[in-house]
Design a protein that fits this description.
alpha/beta; Signal recognition particle alu RNA binding heterodimer, srp9/1; 4-stranded mixed β-sheet; 8 strands
């Protein structure tokens, strides 16, 4: 039986090989160029700079307010955006939280708590030592709204008003009572007639 004739493979011409390499090089160059010109991916939640929730306060004087928050609570100024009439926006940081400040403007109905005559909101701020921070806030010009007291939910707290009329409840977490313990502690405070401030100014029981 005769052997099947071997198919002759045509040698690849040098020009074809060069052309193929050239196309590959062009494709690679285009990919590199695209990578260089591609815009960075934007995080819609801007987690690099902010957490889920940020507070914006309207104040009569941004610089004065920023100075108070730095002295009283330890905030650091991250942004102070200047405008024709002075600062028009500021951002302060405390640990992982951002506090934004906006200037009061009657024309834009942007009013401070003092101008409105009060505020329904209270900012709850956790600190290492509530007694120290409370004293520092009062020394910086804060108004005493509630002296330092042990609360039935396990925090030792106090409350001050800032120069713009905003309320700040300062707290240090001291204990984690059960629901029954919290209920009993609340009943004892009510029986003493002082509510949650019954033990105001006392030494911590925790």
């Amino acid at each position: 039986m005769a052997k099947a004739a071997k198919k002759k493979t045509k040698p690849i011409k040098k020009s074809t090989r060069v052309s193929a390499r050239s196309k590959t090089a062009k494709t690679s160059a285009k990919s590199i160029a695209k990578k260089k010109t591609a815009k960075p991916k934007i995080d819609p939640l801007n987690r690099k700079n902010y957490t889920s929730l940020s507070t914006v306060l309207t104040v009569g004087n941004i610089r004065r307010a920023a100075d108070f928050y730095a002295k009283a609570f330890g905030f650091n100024v991250r942004v102070m955006m200047e405008g024709p009439q002075g600062p028009m926006h500021a951002e302060l940081r405390l640990r992982d939280s951002t506090l934004m400040l906006s200037p009061e403007s009657h024309d834009h109905h942007n009013l401070s708590a003092n101008t409105i005559g009060g505020t329904p909101a209270t900012i709850y701020i956790l600190v290492e030592n509530v007694d120290d921070v409370f004293n520092r806030a009062v020394a910086a010009g804060g108004k005493i709204l509630m002296p330092v007291a042990d609360m039935f939910w396990g925090d030792r707290t106090a409350m001050v008003g800032d120069p713009d009329g905003n309320k700040w409840m300062i707290a240090t977490h001291k204990a984690e009572p059960t629901e029954a313990e919290m209920r009993n502690a609340m009943q004892r405070e009510m029986a003493q007639g002082g509510g949650t401030a019954a033990s105001a100014g006392s030494e911590s029981e925790y």
